[in-house]
């Protein structure tokens, strides 16, 4: 029976790429284990920042605070106003942990916003396919930083490519995407709207 990849098993997998023995806990005090955990967290944030179906939420409503600022939760990596809130009178973008109105040049939004967001999930909340990719990518980077072997790096990169393909396949299956979701396709289909045919 296989079990899900835990943060500890991911760190131990990373340690094995440099020939280190596994640790029993993340608080082992071993410098290489602490470095591996840091790299794992760094890669997890990097991968999740791309925005996947599993860590994206749509139409998240956030109220403005007493100063009129719409402050994002700590877990939000990226945010964009939903189509309902886009107009020529304002354009909301994320700046730091707040939403900013680029047209009116202010953080004072004054009202609530509905946002499409990408959130940072804890490692144990990720799908197994994402955990696998993050672990393999983190293993390669960890080995490159600690040992720097080109041979090991090439072997790890091949595993990373396979894990990335599996992640992309899961994204395609779970995202329910179709050709009409693509902006390029939509713009071609809509190009004759508003034109008069003579």
Structure description:
This protein is an alpha+beta fold and 198 residues long. 41% of the residues lie in helices and 14% in strands. The chain is built from five helices and five strands. The longest helix has 26 residues, at 150-175. It is elongated and about 60 Å long. It starts with 6 loop residues before the first helix and ends in a 9-residue tail after the last helix.
Strand content: 5-15%
Helix content: 40-55%
Uncertain stretches:
193-198
Q: Indicate the mean pLDDT.
A: 87
Task: Give the beta-strand count.
Answer: 5
Order of helices and strands: HHEEEEEHHH
Helix/strand structural class? alpha+beta
Tell the overall outline: elongated
Number of helices: 5
Looking across the biggest beta sheet, what order are the strands in?
1-5-2
Could you tell me how far the N terminus lies from the C terminus, measured between alpha carbons in angstroms?
69 Å
Rg, alpha carbons? 22 Å
- Specify the biggest β-sheet: 3 strands, antiparallel
What are the main properties of this structure?
two-stranded antiparallel ribbon; 198 residues; 3-stranded antiparallel β-sheet; elongated; alpha+beta; disordered C terminus
